[in-house]
Specification:
There is one protein chain. By secondary structure, the protein is an alpha+beta fold. 30% of the residues lie in helices and 14% in strands. A two-stranded antiparallel sheet has the order 1-2. The protein has a two-stranded parallel sheet with strand order 3-4. Strands 5-6 form a two-stranded antiparallel sheet. α1 packs across α3. The longest helix has 12 residues. The radius of gyration is 14 Å and the shape is globular.
């Protein structure tokens, strides 16, 4: 079932799974990252794709740090509907890779860095939370 979230700015249905993803993502501390897969494991539901979909449609982006989620192979993953950076960007002509570059810049400000080809540089920053 979907719950309707109403504000003066928008009206959007949010499923229970999406709420769970947003609530869990809020627990990831600054300077750490986790994976789409680990969120599924912690929640005991969904798939990495369903987590990505929830985050892509996140109406609470000011409060839910979706930039702290990366792929299970420790690749930067997606951000704002785009996947990957530069030559690794996927998603057709609309995908410039600029959104994932912005994600890497946001994470760099938190002390999380990536290799030139987009992989997490320091695996000790990987946060494995369990719900």
């Amino acid at each position: 079932h979907a719950l309707r979230f109403l504000t003066p700015w928008f009206s959007q249905c949010v499923t229970r799974h999406q709420w769970a993803v947003y609530d869990f993502t809020r627990t990831i501390t600054c300077g750490r990252v986790t994976t789409y897969k680990d969120i599924c494991i912690a929640l005991g539901q969904g798939s990495p794709r369903s987590v990505g979909s929830a985050l892509r449609n996140n109406p609470f982006s000011s409060f839910v740090p979706c930039h702290r989620i990366i792929a299970s192979n420790l690749y930067i993953g997606g951000f704002s509907g785009e996947w990957g950076t530069g030559a690794n960007a996927r998603g057709g002509q609309k995908n410039t890779g600029l959104q994932c570059n912005r994600k890497m810049e946001m994470l760099a400000k938190e002390g999380v860095t990536f290799s030139v080809d987009g992989y997490l540089a320091d695996e000790s920053l990987l946060w494995i939370g369990r719900g």
